[in-house]
Amino acid sequence: MPDVNGERLSDAEALLGAAGFMSVRAVDATGKNRTILEKNNWVVEQQEPSAGAGVADGMTVTLGVRKPTDDQDDVAVEKGVVPDVVCHDLQEAQDALRGAGFFVVVAKDGLGQGRYPLVDRNWIVLGQSAKAGSSPEKKATIQLTVVKFGEPTGDSRCKS
Length: 160
What we know:
This protein is of the alpha/beta class. The chain has helices at about 10-20, 90-100; strands at about 25-30, 45-50, 60-65, 105-110, 125-130, 140-150. Helix content is about 10%, strand content about 20%.
């Protein structure tokens, strides 16, 4: 059994397939039962059977996966104060900003390709136009610079 811990789900499945393991099941390791839409957005955290274990032919390999942003603390929300949403997924960032009373939130492609997020949970926030802790007008536009999971994050130190 190869060790696929720390691999993207798509890469882990390819490695397991190359080793002859054709029955692979991925589950959300956080217990939130989120649907896995894009395998490149998930990283293997645990595997069963474990690496190096002997396994019977046809055995199903179960991979516990999570998104790189799952280890981020919850966003602290205070009415009228911009929360720090850098390194969180776009959906969580939007929810936090709305919870703080800011409803004009736009996403900007951090790679400059002009892409628009369709599934907000598949994008990570690298920067925000309104500084965390500031109190702009409620109608102010807050721009979030984002990239898809697995893409370069520049100087942000965000896990992708």
